[in-house]
Amino acid sequence: MQPLKLGSLLPVVASIGWFATCIAYGPVAYADQSEGTRPNIIVIMADDLGYGDVGCYGGTGVATPAIDGLASRGLRFTQAYCSAGTCTPSRYSLLTGVYAFRVPGSGIAPPDSPALIPAGTPSIASVLKDAGYHTGIIGKWHLGLGVKPDGPDWNGTLAPGPLEIGFDDALILPTTNDRVPPVLVRNHRVENLDPSDPLWVGIKPPSTPHRDARSHPGALRMTTTGGHLGTIHNGIGRIGYFTGGEAALFRDEELAGRWVSESRQWLNDNASDPFFLLVTPHSLHAPRIVDERFQGVTKMGPRGDAIAELDWTVGEIVKTLEDLDLIERTLIVFCSDNGPVLIDDYRDRADQLLGDHDPNGAFRGGKYNVYEGATRTPFIVSMPRTVPAGESDQMVCTIDLSASFAAWVGAPVPAGALRDSVNVMPALLGKADAQGRSELVQQDNGWGSFGFRKGEWKLVRCDAAAMFNSNLEMKRTPAPKFALYHLKSDPGETKNVLRENQERANQMKEELQRIIDSDQQ
Predict the structure, then answer these.
(1) Distance between CA 503 and CA 235 in Å, rounded?
(2) What are phi and psi of 259, to 5 degrees?
(3) 270, 273, 269: which is closest to 35 by C-alpha?
(4) Fewest CB atoms within 10 A around its CB: which of 115, 161, 366, 483?
């Protein structure tokens, strides 16, 4: 049976023990705030997953039963976004509720980046922690570690990091899997690091012997066209260089299993507390090296296999909640950090093995730009007996989760914090007549392109005269300074109607500039 459109659902809200208060648009508290009855929250943020990559959004190449199951039991949003076309700024905005373009240096973080979020910055984790929630993050971080300007002390205390912005527990991939160092960080330390074998990390080759992709091309099991020619680990060239730390190095194939086992353990350990858990698997990010059990399970090659691995990850987390009898007390949000890219330097035939599968669905663009394919992503909210099953066309964004969750649980927000986050919790809960946000700024990686959606209209501004134009690979193509699209009639952004709507375009240009200029941090 197909889920009903939200507009056709009867305005019936389940009335269950702890959920006795109707949600309003401002901050709201539960009638019963005791720890045993407050809702838990899990956000699962995928990496480089496109709108059309999963079955419930029209994906045809890979079966995604776990993700589709979430959608069948909850709300599937058709106009949901991340705020940026690449991972670091998108994750920055998710955590802080602030557009990343307001913060200098918030593009894709290099291997030795200091923390992009200063210690003590209010975040989605800190506001929930202050409200009595136990908070954790498991998976990809890619927001820098350590103090400015020095950056990470890989052999010492890695702070500031997640714990300094409100997380109680962290097991993170500190950068991303195509960068060095290939280690995991638990709280403030590199996991399993042997002090007698120190880890050195840099963006320039070290003076000591090392194996890089330029000098040892025969050691590569996946070819690269030039961007990942640093130190080889596990047969893969990475961005940057490292030496030492042998006991701490991970095996790519085992990472998804770690995210699952750690999530299971964390949920078991915190089942009696109100909790917030952010799980950030990286499966689709290049290089796509999945667990052996998923290798070759799809016809789409490594990228398709990575989607299958991601779906398994989601399913295992849901199963854990069911086993702990927490599924009806836990809000699950499934989303993605940005849209898809097929060939991101590594050559794994992702572009050749698509068949009729379209990672973007009906949309144009992909990772690295600001077209709809870059920032409109799968977005599912599930909580049985609380969130109705159906489909919503309300506009929401991952940047809104911090303000929305704070309002939902009655958490105080420091003055001036979460400034770009909008409380869209009524829309996330599928409330009758609830409204999402009315406008949204989308950015690329800080290269000078913006998208500004207002109602049914989308203004695209390109300051660099060229923009990454598709999801096929990182290749810039010429683009006009401004373009205007009517998304309701042209969701694929195929027809620039700026000339026919000059007055509207000028108004939107001015509004976008005001937002960009307002109180830059």
Answers:
(1) 55
(2) -60, -40
(3) 273
(4) 483
Which stretch of DSSP H or E encloses residue 170? strand 169-173
Pull the structure tokens for residue 450: 């913006």
Q: Give the integer Cα–Cα distance in Å for 307 and 482.
A: 35
Structure tokens at 378: 């799968």
Q: Residue 96 and residue 52: Cα distance in Å, rounded?
A: 28
Token pair 């690295």 is found at 368
pLDDT digit string (tens) for 124-178? 999 999 999 999 999 999 999 999 999 999 999 999 999 999 999 999 999 999 9
> What single letter denotes the amino acid at residue 123?
S
Q: Which CATH class is domain 38-188+244-428?
A: alpha beta
Q: Radius of gyration of the chain from Cα atoms? A: 22
Domains 38-188+244-428 and 439-517 share a fold: no
Angle at 404 between CA 114 and CA 29, to 5 degrees: 120
**Would you put residue 456 in left (φ > 0), alpha (ψ -120 to 50) or beta?**
alpha
Find residue 441's DSSP bridge partners.
Answer: 452
Q: What are phi and psi of 401, to 5 degrees?
A: -65, -35
93 neighbors 84 (Cβ within 8 angstroms): yes
Burial class (CB in 10 A: 0-12, 13-18, 19+), 448: middle
- Other Cβ atoms less than 10 A from the Cβ of 280: the count is 22
26 pLDDT band, cuts 50/70/90, is very low
Contact, 39 vs 329, CB < 8 A? yes
Q: How much of the chain exceeds pLDDT 90, in percent?
A: 81
Spatial contact of 117 and 123, defined as CB atoms under 8 Å apart: yes
DSSP string of 226-239? SS--SBEETTEE-B
Whole-angstrom Cα distance, residue 152 to residue 183? 13
CA distance 454 to 121: 29
Question: What number of other Cβ atoms are within 10 A of residue 396's Cβ?
Answer: 26
**Quick one: how far is CA 428 from the chain centroid?**
17
Question: What is residue 403's predicted lDDT score, i.e. its pLDDT?
Answer: 98
pTM exceeding 0.90: yes
The rounded distance, in Å, linking the Cα atoms of 495 and 457 is 12
b/e for 83-122, b at 16 or more Cβ within 10 A? bbbbbbbbbbbbbbbbbbbbbeebbbbbbbbbbbbeeebb
CATH architecture label of 439-517: 2-Layer Sandwich (3.30)
Dist CA 224 CA 473 (whole Å): 12
Q: How many angstroms separate the Cα of 333 from the Cα of each of 35, 307, 380, 471? A: 21, 17, 6, 25
Domain assignments of the chain as residue spans, ordered by start? 38-188+244-428, 439-517
Q: CA angle, 192 as apex, 190 and 195 as ends, to 5°?
A: 80
- For residue 252, the 8-state DSSP code is G
